[in-house]
Amino acid sequence: MPTPSEQMQVLDLISQAKITALEGEELLKALAASSPKPKPQPIRVDPVVVSAIGWSPNEGANLVFELRKMGIDHLKLSELQEMRLHNVTPEFVREIASLGYEDVDLDELVNLRMQNISPEYIREMRAAGLTGVDFDELIEVSEHGITPEFMRAMREAGIKNLDVDELVECFDHGVTPEFIRAMQQSGLKDLNTDELIECSDHGVTPEFMRAMHEGGIKDLDVEELIECSDHGVTPEFLRSMREAGIKDLDVEELVECSNHGVTPEFLRAVRKTGIKHLDIDEIVECFDHGVTVEFIIAMRDAGIKDLEVDELVECADHGVTPEFIRGIHELELKDLEVNHLVALTDHGITTKMLKKACHAHLALGIEDLVELVTEEQDLEDKDNKESQGKRGTHIHLH
């Protein structure tokens, strides 16, 4: 607010026409904005005021005494009311201070009460090994249900010196003292908290490990166990693979089988066709390229035997079907190799086209035969187009 002297000076400038009335108004506003505002005076902690909020005279005096020891001698009526509402008593303030928390503000005291963190809880957590933590950390462990009993059990299980974040993470991810002891009994010892959390998150439980051992998979590290669990290499999968005669596979091979859907049933069926001694890569290649048991049997029935996996895959990929092969044999075009058959199907040459060439008694090599049939098909396509063109331009007269 401008002083009376400042206001008179502005009016003199206006009367002398040195500034306009509008400029004078703006100047007064600027002076008002720049004037220091009076600071609100906080209410001192007075036992009489404290008693008026609802404390007894004795409690009020004690509260004033304890708060002043912590350096708090000014507060608002609303803060006093909040302390009364949340039962921040003189005894509570005194005990918090006795625990070493002397530099505390009113919000922190109220927040402790709101989170049900008592001095007893703080002392028990310290005795269990949680020391040197501030109020925010105490509130965090309390909110996550971490009790002194949990802390003591973790220490007994060999997990010590955890900070608040590690404790909370273990608790939230199911890494309990019982889980840790069971993992140790299953053979995984000396795991750090990150590894234990990873195991719990990925389903690598003590039960999973025992079942894997029974299935013949032992001495795996944490990463291998997690890979098995993530990719469906379960104890049941292991047992069925062993029953199908697939043994001594490493983790990568088992994961590859599981990822590609190679089942024990598929392996048994392939072996029944007479194809044996396949490695995992060959088995996966067959499965991925549609070289099914039915395809293999049909190819054998059509007269194609003793093919290697690569040849079977090439046939399946290029449409060299058992029906196509039977048609070739009916035309007495025998002793064709897989690459010849693939060349025919890749050029779109059907057995019908080959039949025309054979009727012309053409004794040609496969390359010449492909070229000839292709040329004849091109000519036939050209004739068809010309015929269609003539029909399209024919005019009917009525």
Q: Helix/strand/pairing class, anyone? A: mainly alpha
Strand arrangement in the largest pleated sheet: 1-2
Question: Count of DSSP E strands?
Answer: 2
Distance between the amino and carboxyl termini: 108 Å
Low-confidence stretches: 391-398
Helical fraction equals 55-70%
Question: How is the main sheet built?
Answer: 2 strands, antiparallel
What is the averaged pLDDT score?
79
Question: Any idea what the radius of gyration is?
Answer: 45 Å
Q: What percentage of the residues does DSSP assign to strands (E)?
A: under 5%
Number of helical segments with 4 or more residues: 25
Shape: elongated
Give the SSE string: HHEHHEHHHHHHHHHHHHHHHHHHHHH
Q: Can you put this structure into words, describing what you see?
A:
Helix 1 runs antiparallel to helix 2 (21-34), helix 3 packs across helix 4 and helix 19 (280-288) packs parallel to helix 21 (309-317). Strands 1-2 form a two-stranded antiparallel sheet. It contains 25 helices and 2 strands. The chain has a domain at 4-34. Helix content is 64%, strand content 1%. The chain is an all-alpha fold and 398 residues long. The model is unreliable at 391-398 (pLDDT under 50). The termini are far apart.
Topology summary:
Blueprint: H1 4-15, H2 21-34, E1 43-44, H3 47-53, H4 57-69, E2 74-75, H5 77-85, H6 90-98, H7 106-114, H8 119-127, H9 135-143, H10 148-156, H11 164-172, H12 177-185, H13 193-201, H14 206-214, H15 222-230, H16 235-243, H17 251-259, H18 264-272, H19 280-288, H20 293-301, H21 309-317, H22 322-330, H23 338-346, H24 351-359, H25 366-393
Antiparallel strand pairs: 1-2
Helix pairs in contact: 1-2, 3-4, 4-6, 19-21
